[in-house]
Amino acid sequence: MTAPLLLWAVDVGERLVRVKRDDRIASVAVPGLCTGVGRMQPMIAARQMYQAYREIMLEEKMQFKNFAEAQKYHWNINPQGMIWTH
């Protein structure tokens, strides 16, 4: 993850934590990131967004024994193995 993207993710995470604690807000809609102009398949975007939610909101940090294990995990999220296809 690049530094600017990491900072953005932390900022979004902090905002979501504040929203979570505000009783006036019942739900938050999040669009399928990259599914429009980026043409990412909705299922792949959903898997990535869910993982980001788990890591930021639920503080479930991913721990991999080695690079191969991490690569296998990410392949399961995105079986096409492609970030940019167009």
Structural features:
3 helices; mainly alpha; 0% strand; 86 residues; globular; single chain
SSE layout:
Elements: H1 3-20, H2 42-56, H3 67-77
Q: How many individual helices?
A: 3
Class from secondary-structure proportions = mainly alpha
**Percentage of helical residues?**
40-55%
Number of strands: 0
Global geometry:
globular
Poorly predicted regions are none
Give the rounded overall mean pLDDT.
75
Largest sheet: number of strands, sense, barrel closure: none
Strand content: under 5%
Give the SSE string.
HHH
- The radius of gyration over CA amounts to 15 Å
The end-to-end span amounts to: 21 Å
Give a short overview.
By secondary structure, the chain is mostly helical. 51% of the residues lie in helices and 0% in strands. The longest helix has 18 residues, at 3-20.
Question: Could you please describe the fold and organization of this structure?
Answer:
- It is a single chain.
- The protein is an all-alpha fold and 86 residues long.
- The chain is built from 3 helices and no strands.
- It has helices at residues 3-20, 42-56, 67-77.
- The longest helix has 18 residues, at 3-20.
- It is globular and about 45 Å long.
- The relative contact order is 0.11.
